[in-house]
Amino acid sequence: MKTLIDRARIDARIAECAETLGTNAREFRKAAVEVLAEALAKGAETARAELESGGGGLACGAHLAYVEDEILRAIHTCVTKFIVPDAESTPLCVIAVGGYGRGALAPGSDIDLLFLLNGKGRASAESIVEAILYFLWDLKQKVGHATRTVEECLRQAKGDMTIRTTLIETRYILGDQTLLDTLLTRFDQEIVRTTAPEFVAAKLAERDERVRRAGSSRYLVEPNVKEGKGGLRDLNTLFWIAKYAYRVHDVEALVAAGLFSEQEQRLFRRCENFLWSVRCHMHFYTGRAEERLSFDIQRVLAERLGFKPGAGLSMVERFMKRYFVTAKNVGDLTNIVCAALEERQAKPRAVFDRIFGTLRRRAKPRDLGPFAIETDRVTVPSNDVFAKDPVNLIKLFWVAAHNEMPIHPDALRLVTQSLPRIDAKLRANPEANRLFLEILTNPQSSERALRLMNEAGVLGRFITEFGRIVALMQFNMYHHYTVDEHLLRAVRELASIELGHLKAELPLTSEIMPTITHRRALYLAVLLHDIAKGRPEDHSHAGAALARKIGPRLGLTDAETESAAWLVEQHLTMSNIAQSRDLADPRTIEGFARTVQSIERLKMLSVLTVSDIRAVGPGVWNGWKGELLRTLYWETELVLAGGHSSVDRKSRVERSQRELREKLPAWSDPEFADYVARHYPAYWLKVDLPHKIQHAQLLYASAVELNSLATEYSTDVFRGVTELTVVAPDHPRLLSIIAGACAVGGANIVDAQVFTTADGLALDTISISRAFDQDSDELRRAARVAKSIEQALRGEIRVTELLAAKAESTPDRAETFSVPPDVVIDNSLSHKYSVVEVSGLDRPGLLHDLTFTLSKLNLNIASAHIVTFGEKAVDAFYVTDLTGAKVINPARHAALRRHLLDVFAGKPRAVESA
């Protein structure tokens, strides 16, 4: 530690300053601060160098705490010698509390101090405290502090859990140590001894609220290292309640107290050291108290912590897998402490149920087999229950699910110790597989049982393919959770649909779920649909092969197994087509129907797709996606039922026009006939009636006002979008300008319908994702975006220049993510249009640049379908050449690909005609 900071040299240099500057207090203070700042910076730099050369996080935290201790002692010496003379004998104790009190300090952490007085000479002591604080503030340190007597501390601790927590994490730094000893003795005797249940309940309730704010899952792909579930604060809380209830001073003492085994105590230290390493690296790298392990930081930390690519995983994925395993271990340790505290009656049952999840209990437990009931939970009657019959490792979870009861933590602890008994023989056991399949397909408790199995390590050992994706993160901005967490949440969504809990939100899937014949195949497909993530081959095809292997083992019939395998292989198909294809184009529906082949498969794929999207993360599912999927379902069902040609195209157009005529009674027949003549047949087939009415009124108003440029906007809460309708003289760059104006206003386009009238006007409907929950806020934003569009179309603002300025101030995602760009041109997906699908790294203004390039290549865009998966954009454009024909020539295809790929490379090209 001596190499971190040289106290003797600091004191000597400050004394020299005092001697040189004499009575000039202001200059002396400034000079002393410079000495202290230099020493503080040197100490921090030394600690950083040791960390980055492979030192542990706890060692780094201890080094920084030691440096801070020495700085405080130097400040105190300086104050009592030169600032507040004759104050050296003033009774005062300076105490570290909070994280600093635990003897570990992160680079960006606050300095938490308690200045303890004895009540005598208070004015003198407070003048010392004030002078110390001014030095710390001059050093630009964030200081949390309190100045109290022993009596004041005890009085406030009786009514304040935060102060109690502070007092169980005290560490002497300097001054009169008898004051601290007196405080701790009285605190233990007068408060701690009789209030353990109260304190434990309060701390666990506080943890629940903190975890809720930070994100309820410990498997968020951008976790909060300090406040998130399974993070450092959970370890702190665990130690606080154990220390308070067992009245011990360190983690090692919890072994002697019988709370932890030696192995569990070592696990505690490993978790703590790893999380501290991550946190210290984050603070040093960002230069601030950053606690969120964001994507841009993950890559840097993976490299600094020495992770290498391997086993099919990138270095980032291996680092984050280690992080999530650590978070899971923190959860296991929390469970152990909670169970032990309950046995000591130091913790109310209600708190336990919040931690483990209260299940609806039956009046009489049944089919317990070799297990017993203890305090309304399934437990083991003896420690040899799994040794006698390893099938019981699966049966325990079946009994809990069957009776809808939680499992006692002691039983889960024994399960963890018995994991080696889950071997090839057990995996081949018909009874074990039957029980597992019943667990999976029981909608009342499947997700909870599977989650417990996963937490205990059983799921990954029984289904070894699942074990490969446990704690595996997906390094992208689209998925919010690790792969295993996503799959378990998808099972939960499926179960909720089957139980009828989502009828209002998901009317179609709730209606068709009871009619599905192969429900066991559907449950297995939902559990396995991403099981091959992290492998070099396409995960859909590899997952289908795994489903064909696992299905028969679990007892599925050949037909069920093939259904499950097909669902896994096609699990992305329906979502991709719904979001990136023109659903009004008959060729789209025909192609999807050929893939699906049967109504049963269509039903199963619909339910799987909805479950999958809803399990991705908060805000990913919305009414707009639901509407697209329902449209695709009904149109495809019609084809599969043989009824798609029952109404010909001409009759459908005429029926559409009649429906609109009925809604415009004030229009004269000649006026309506003129209006009908303005639209081509595609308009009448693609646009729904409410939008036809809106368009008619907007175009009529524009004609009356002789205004060829007009915009309207409205919100659609159900679809989760805001619609902007633009009427303007048609020209090739129109959509590009609109897209650019939206990008300048920060509006994310998710869909675009583009129509041209016979008299040369463009009628474009742009759907942008909502930014505000309240309609009033969203409408004000839409008004600003609409105004920007009008200004851009009038030439009052230059979109290209504004986008360039915006790009300079936007973080470059290319430094964090790698998304290879791709361009696919397909003439088989539509009877009339060439479909150009472009994918690559998303950025502000990308859609503007793509549409600008298409227009410069003399291509007309009939419709655009914009999908964003986090950092990846997938945009599909239905285009023709200037004659209205498809783009057929191979040379034109090559030119089109080249120019669109250059958009991602940032290389503007002199565009030749495509």
TrEMBL record:
<dbReference type="InterPro" id="IPR006674">
    <property type="entry name" value="HD_domain"/>
</dbReference>
<protein>
    <recommendedName>
        <fullName>Bifunctional uridylyltransferase/uridylyl-removing enzyme</fullName>
        <ecNumber>2.7.7.59</ecNumber>
        <ecNumber>3.1.4.-</ecNumber>
    </recommendedName>
</protein>
<dbReference type="InterPro" id="IPR013546">
    <property type="entry name" value="PII_UdlTrfase/GS_AdlTrfase"/>
</dbReference>
<dbReference type="InterPro" id="IPR045865">
    <property type="entry name" value="ACT-like_dom_sf"/>
</dbReference>
<dbReference type="InterPro" id="IPR043519">
    <property type="entry name" value="NT_sf"/>
</dbReference>
<dbReference type="GO" id="GO:0008081">
    <property type="term" value="F:phosphoric diester hydrolase activity"/>
</dbReference>
<comment type="similarity">
    <text>Belongs to the GlnD family.</text>
</comment>
<keyword id="KW-0511">Multifunctional enzyme</keyword>
<keyword id="KW-0808">Transferase</keyword>
<dbReference type="InterPro" id="IPR002912">
    <property type="entry name" value="ACT_dom"/>
</dbReference>
<keyword id="KW-0378">Hydrolase</keyword>
<dbReference type="Pfam" id="PF08335">
    <property type="entry name" value="GlnD_UR_UTase"/>
</dbReference>
<dbReference type="GO" id="GO:0008773">
    <property type="term" value="F:[protein-PII] uridylyltransferase activity"/>
</dbReference>
<keyword id="KW-0548">Nucleotidyltransferase</keyword>
<feature type="domain" description="ACT">
    <location>
        <begin position="835"/>
        <end position="913"/>
    </location>
</feature>
<dbReference type="Pfam" id="PF01909">
    <property type="entry name" value="NTP_transf_2"/>
</dbReference>
<dbReference type="GO" id="GO:0006808">
    <property type="term" value="P:regulation of nitrogen utilization"/>
</dbReference>
<dbReference type="Pfam" id="PF01842">
    <property type="entry name" value="ACT"/>
</dbReference>
<dbReference type="InterPro" id="IPR002934">
    <property type="entry name" value="Polymerase_NTP_transf_dom"/>
</dbReference>
<dbReference type="Pfam" id="PF01966">
    <property type="entry name" value="HD"/>
</dbReference>
<dbReference type="InterPro" id="IPR010043">
    <property type="entry name" value="UTase/UR"/>
</dbReference>
<keyword id="KW-0460">Magnesium</keyword>
<keyword id="KW-0677">Repeat</keyword>
<comment type="function">
    <text>Modifies, by uridylylation and deuridylylation, the PII regulatory proteins (GlnB and homologs), in response to the nitrogen status of the cell that GlnD senses through the glutamine level. Under low glutamine levels, catalyzes the conversion of the PII proteins and UTP to PII-UMP and PPi, while under higher glutamine levels, GlnD hydrolyzes PII-UMP to PII and UMP (deuridylylation). Thus, controls uridylylation state and activity of the PII proteins, and plays an important role in the regulation of nitrogen metabolism.</text>
</comment>
<feature type="region of interest" description="Uridylyltransferase">
    <location>
        <begin position="1"/>
        <end position="365"/>
    </location>
</feature>
<dbReference type="InterPro" id="IPR003607">
    <property type="entry name" value="HD/PDEase_dom"/>
</dbReference>
<feature type="domain" description="ACT">
    <location>
        <begin position="723"/>
        <end position="804"/>
    </location>
</feature>
<feature type="domain" description="HD">
    <location>
        <begin position="483"/>
        <end position="605"/>
    </location>
</feature>
